[in-house]
Design goal:
Layout (H helix, E strand, L loop, with lengths): L3 H15 L4 E6 L5 E3 L2 H8 L4 E7 L2 E6 L3 E5 L4 E7 L8 E7 L3 E7 L5 E5 L3 H4 L13 H9 L5 H6 L9 H11 L12 H20 L36 E5 L2 E5 L7
Parallel strand pairs: 2-9
Antiparallel strand pairs: 1-7, 3-4, 4-5, 5-9, 6-8, 7-8, 10-11
Helix pairs in contact: 1-7, 4-7, 6-7
């Protein structure tokens, strides 16, 4: 699943191409990709609106339109890219928007888990999300307080989008290794120093991921090379870059998790 750096990369790539273009045609090819509104209202409301800006909130792509907001969550296999109007639709295209300037915006989603919202109040969807980890308002003190307000294992907690927006399996494993914390450590047992280290590690791995255009570890990701710089994720049996101990894979919260048993002792 694309995580914060991959979604941020897509938003940055699309923004200079799409901003200012008018939506001329709406081809909804898989109605179940649409969370709200109904397909007929979706087509009627969306047509004629102009794309004013593009950003990201957590793992959601956020297109600001002249009247509404278009939210897209890529989930497991979704992708969003542009093509020529003359492009022949592919079998997994779920939504194609014809734009001014003979351009199309295509939402392609092989596994059909992705979702789309056309909404006037984005808080109805985004309001439950936790803080953005790269915002200035997210401080080590805020992270420490949030950790101590809960009694949960670190790995599942960091994956909880209501706790912190944008983290996924890859960047959580990388951040926990950088911070020297075991994924099963209880959140309310962290010291202020450990919480500050975790705060810094989260920001460092996310910024590095964005710098490298995300990770291309599966056919659903395109163009990034952060996978070439992983510390532990996907490196079971290889040596830790810090201490050369063999990296192990375990299951935490039903998710495959990679750790260095020496650097991240419980």
């Amino acid at each position: 699943m694309p995580e914060l750096p991959e979604v941020e990369t897509i938003a940055r790539r699309l923004s200079p191409i799409l901003v200012g273009r008018e939506i001329m045609a709406v081809d909804l090819r898989w109605a179940r990709s649409l969370a709200t509104p109904a397909p007929s209202e979706f087509r009627q409301r969306l047509g004629g609106q102009t794309i004013e800006s593009i950003s990201r909130r957590g793992k959601y792509l956020r297109l600001y339109l002249s009247q509404d907001q278009l939210l897209i969550h890529l989930r497991m296999s979704g992708d969003l890219f542009t093509g020529e109007v003359s492009r022949i639709p592919e079998i997994h295209d779920r939504l194609i928007l014809g734009l001014s300037g003979d351009l199309s915006l295509i939402f392609n989603d092989t596994r059909k888990f992705g979702r789309i919202w056309l909404i006037d109040d984005p808080n109805k969807v985004l309001g439950m999300l936790g803080p953005e980890p790269l915002e200035d308002e997210f401080t080590p003190k805020i992270l420490f307080d949030r950790l101590h307000n809960r009694h949960r294992q670190l790995k599942p907690l960091l994956l909880d989008q209501t706790f912190l927006a944008g983290m996924g399996n890859i960047y959580t494993d990388e951040a926990l290794h950088m911070a020297g914390l075991h994924p099963c450590k209880l959140s309310d047992r962290l010291t202020e120093h450990q919480a500050a280290n975790l705060w810094q590690a989260i920001r460092d791995v996310l910024l590095e991921g964005i710098h490298r255009n995300g990770a291309s570890i599966d056919w659903v990701y395109r163009g990034g090379d952060f996978q070439n710089y992983f510390r532990v994720y996907g490196r079971e049996g290889e040596t830790c870059p810090v201490c050369e101990t063999r990296i192990e894979k375990m299951i935490v919260g039903q998710r495959g998790t990679h750790i260095c048993p020496n650097c991240q002792s419980l």
